[in-house]
Amino acid sequence: MNILRLLCMLNSPFLNAMKHVKSDETQEALKATQDTFPGLTIPHTISSVWGSFVTNCITCYNPGLHITVDEQLFPSKTRCCFLQYIASKPDKFGIKFWVACDLKSKYICNVLPYLGKDPNRPSGERLSENVVMRLMEPFLDKGRNVTTDNFFTSLSLAQKLLRRKTTILGTVNKIRREIPQSARYKDRNEFTTQVFSTSAATLTAYAAKRKKTVYILSSMHSVVQTDNTTKRKPNTVTLYNTTKCGVDVMDQMVREYTVRRGTRRWPVAVFYNMIDMAALNAHVLYQACTGTQERRVDFLVELARELANSHMAGKKARKEQLPQTQPSTPSPGKRATSGQTQMQEQSCHCVMCSLLQIHMW
């Protein structure tokens, strides 16, 4: 199987994809182009590749039962209006992406860039709910479960997902309105559990420490049970700890082998992240299609070799198609000037001569 075909969650060859990182167009050219990278007016080439990448991520893989939704901060200090600062991240500055990731394989199922306020979002809808519903739209009505953190989880989101045959499991911020007053005790006995139920979801209040209570909202658990260990953890907390790490592990894998380089142009930074994600997805698809377990570093080395060979073959083919032109020589009746002679001498130098001159200098 050709690894090059698996790479690329892009519909075009690598050479065409490289053309999409250009961002030196003038403001007049940007205004003339009405194509958007969801929410911004940018060159058509950027958004077309991004759209192809996301479309192929969605259609090329069938995720499992559990999908994790979280944020990814791609490290960058590019000049753009949607650069984010998150103090809790290892790299404080970067471009934020909302990612839906398969828990088992760490395959990137869907991804959205965060570009600030979205004018297309309904005024009465929370940003967190809008993000989850957009990411999960291709995977709804299949009986899956989505795991989220306290930024996304809410009772209204659980109700929306439940109507689409999808459950939710996630932590809830203690300031949410759906948390009853009787569950907001600050001083609880250690390792105690309190359960609150509605027709749509179950809220678990678990005291991991004496003055620290964790709130878990679940629409997939109608009954909450505790284990027989010393900490007496509820099954909702145990399952959440198992399913919450999909996007975080994916981000670590992408950072381990990355093509990222320093740049001040945000389309280039987005392209770097796109290539890293495509390479990770290609490795998952390669293992799923061939049934073999191959180290990711070996797969990436072979992938880079095939990309380089394809690039050199295309370059050689284009060079052979160029017309063969003979170097211009002065006519017999005319004498070449000193400038022309110097130019001819410079043009006939080979690479070894140039290196020799540099060494002698």
UniProtKB/TrEMBL annotation:
Region span, Disordered: 312-341
Bias (Low complexity): 323-332
Domain PiggyBac transposable element-derived protein span(s) in chain numbering: 46-283
Protein name per Swiss-Prot or TrEMBL: PiggyBac transposable element-derived protein domain-containing protein
Organism in which the protein naturally occurs: Oreochromis niloticus
